[in-house]
From TrEMBL:
MF terms (GO), sorted A to Z: kynurenine-oxoglutarate transaminase activity; pyridoxal phosphate binding
Domain Aminotransferase class I/classII large: 28-376
Protein name per UniProt: Methionine aminotransferase
Family note: Belongs to the class-I pyridoxal-phosphate-dependent aminotransferase family.
UniProt lineage: Bacteria, Pseudomonadati, Bacteroidota, Cytophagia, Cytophagales
Gene3D superfamilies: Aspartate Aminotransferase, domain 1, Type I PLP-dependent aspartate aminotransferase-like (Major domain)
Cofactor: pyridoxal 5'-phosphate
Originating species: Ohtaekwangia koreensis
A GO CC term attached to the entry: cytoplasm
Record keywords, A-Z: Aminotransferase, Pyridoxal phosphate, Transferase
Cross-referenced Pfam families: Aminotran_1_2 (PF00155)
Length: 380
């Protein structure tokens, strides 16, 4: 058969490519965003216990009630925002499924969606697969701030949604109160939806407060916020996340969610519900990852790489302009193959492949891993 690809320009993700390259060349893998240290054994034993107790069949489609209930309490405590766990929280198979379910629920052929590059690589394909038109707005180093006047200039009669991501992957930048106020004014004026990717909400540094859309009443009334247990509890392979949105939006998300995965694995949901009863399990994460960021920055001192500001996530961008004029893809490949440290070239996060000669390193690693990597990087 002659198959017409719906995503003809999409190949294997850069994360898979660089991780395979790291494996093939015996390189330290600071490319793909996952920890190389163990998760808390307490939650592993909880999952095992719930399995042994027979909780191995389908969970309810919206998610286990115990998990949705504790999420509602955490949101109330964190953002002073009240949500109904029965009608406004949906457990998803990771944040990526949540993002896709949202886009599938609301984006029709011809609808335009504004997003900011560099951007997480699932946004554009998810929009296109549902017939939408991605409208990319580039943001630039060193701070990757959004010019809201440019956003206003890109809004048309077909604009349906704006996607934001804070703390940001890959930049490590964060949005501030003035950004959320500007966004709120725009979406109210133009009757838009907001998809807010907040998977790194707990990984925020230097005393900065995470500006969730849930903090802003008018914005929250037309926003869908996406979160990730995998990022929060170092368990990316569990693929568990959740979407928080008003009831009238949640109803539509659940319609698509139920036909994408129906429900998320039961014992993990029950274990997460129990584990989150202890606030320190999630409230201490900012300090934990800031120490890792600071360790990486301290040990890269003396190198020719220039680190950019990083206020959140577990990614550090560095400029190699003092080392080479090569494109960032070529540079990432060379450092992986020749010097045995794998990173991600930032140009792949831009639709137009803007190359600012930046590489992204993941510091969600053990200190000995980071120390070995930095020792190599200092010699380049």
């Amino acid at each position: 058969m002659n198959i017409a690809s719906r995503l003809p320009d999409i190949g294997t993700s850069i994360f898979s490519i660089m991780s395979k390259m790291a494996l093939d060349h015996g390189a330290i893998n600071l490319s793909q965003g996952f920890p190389d240290f163990s998760i808390d054994e307490k939650i592993i034993h909880m999952v095992q216990r719930y399995m042994l107790e027979g909780n191995n069949q389908y969970a309810p489609m919206p998610g286990a009630p115990a998990l949705r209930n504790i999420i509602a309490k955490v949101i109330e405590n964190t953002y002073t925002h009240t949500v109904n766990p029965e009608t406004e929280i949906t457990i998803t198979a990771g944040a990526t499924e949540g993002i896709f379910a949202i886009i599938a629920a609301f984006i029709s052929p011809g609808d335009e969606v504004i997003l900011f590059d560099p951007s997480y690589d699932s946004y554009n394909p998810s929009i296109r697969l549902n017939g939408g038109i991605p409208i990319h707005i580039n943001v630039s180093p060193p701070d990757f701030s959004i010019d809201w006047d440019i956003v206003r200039s890109k809004i048309s009669s077909r604009t349906k949604m704006i996607i934001i991501n804070t703390p940001h992957n890959p930049c490590g930048s964060v949005l501030h109160e003035k950004d959320l106020r500007a966004l709120e004014q725009i979406v109210l004026e133009h009757n838009l939806l907001v998809l807010s990717d907040e998977v790194y909400e707990r990984l925020i540094f230097d005393g900065i407060k995470h500006q969730s859309v849930l903090r802003y009443k008018a914005l929250a009334s037309r926003a869908l916020a996406v979160f990730s247990f995998g990022k929060t509890f170092h368990a990316t392979g569990w693929k568990a996340g959740y979407v928080v949105a008003p009831e009238y939006l949640t109803k539509e998300v659940r319609k698509t969610h139920q036909f994408i995965v129906f429900s998320v694995n039961t014992p993990v949901q029950l274990a997460l519900a129990e584990y989150m009863q202890t606030r320190d399990h999630y409230e201490s994460l900012g300090t934990f990852y800031q120490k890792k960021r600071d360790f990486f920055l301290e040990h890269i001192k003396g190198s020719s790489f220039e680190p950019l500001p990083c206020n959140g996530s577990y990614f550090q961008l560095v400029s190699y302009k003092n080392i080479s004029k090569k494109g960032d893809v070529e540079m990432a490949e060379e450092i992986t193959k020749k010097f045995k440290v794998a990173s991600i070239p930032v140009s792949v996060f831009y639709q137009d492949r803007t190359d600012n000669h930046l590489l992204r390193f993941c510091f969600a690693k053990m200190e000995e891993t980071l120390e070995r990597a930095c020792e190599i990087l200092r010699k380049i």
